[in-house]
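Worked example 4.2. Below are the chains of a multi-component assembly; read each line carefully before continuing.
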Amino acid sequence: MNDARGWRVALVPDVLMNAPDRARAALPDVLHILEANRYGILQLPAAGEHSLLLAVIADQAAEYSHHGYAVVAIGVQGESGNGLHWRRLAPLLRHRGVALPPRHIIRPQIKATIEAQRLTAFLTGYDLPLEEQRRWRL
Amino acid sequence: MHKPKTVMEHSSPRKVALLASCLLNQNAKVCQGAHYPGVVSPVVEALRSRGYLLQQLPCPELAFAGARRWWAVYEQYDTPAYRAHCRRLAQAIAPLIEQYLRHGAEVILIGLDGSPSTGVRFTSSQPDWGGRPNRPEDDWEIVPRRGIWIEELEAELARRGLPPLPATGWALDMGRFDEAGARRDLEEFLDDREKGDSGEDAAAP
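Applying the procedure described above to all two chains together yields the following structure tokens:
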């Protein structure tokens, strides 16, 4: 049986998953871009406490990072912590022995088509070293 | 209480779809179980085109048994330790769901039919599975029952006094995946919601 997984996972803020009506035109369609680039999503909640949920998300991100998956984070300029809860998420990841994933920040004040191109370039340009890929991706 | 920002800021009718983790991330699937590279686009398209906001649920199997876990059926995951793990995940996501409901959003649940954890209408069953994993292909059964994770999530929502959620499953783990059939099923469920017909909803399978 074949397996179609893309071996790539992106941490994505809620605001990029569910852009408010007023912001939709200013943001690239991140879901579509991730899908086109074979990425899966780990959705981060909107601003708020969410301590237990962030720990649960960190557990999942760690499992991917430790087993051959490329993990990245996509934030948004102007959102608290770029929408990534970074001040709390980063220590949770470090505590689980995870190197912090590379971050790409969307700039809502820049034209959405340009930001879409920047995001695509970031996503296609990142992966684990070949020897790590060979080790895990059978 | 913090208000869920995106629901509060949306001017259109507030509709939220809770999604099994692997519907947004097929990397969560057990080895040989991924049918898409990442996002299950037919599900996302069907929901977004009808104005649903998306809320991903955690993946219980990934965090419990790992990315390189063996295939398993309902009976193997039906243990006190796995149920306790699922209850912890439910307690992590339930406050968000509660906020959506308390602010008047219509919340639905899309699980993964056939999954031992995330099945809504159906789960996989084979009471004699165990030991060395050398089972012949397709020797498990599909039975009408919730998966363990969905059972525990619904129990947590009930403990909070929340109403049962209308729910259905994307039939990815039913042995033979039929995308066109799964898409028809999902669209029928969503369109019945639009028409005010509860369709196959929160009632137990």
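Take a moment to check your reading of the output against the notes. The radius of gyration of chain A is 15 Å. Chain A has a mean pLDDT of 95.
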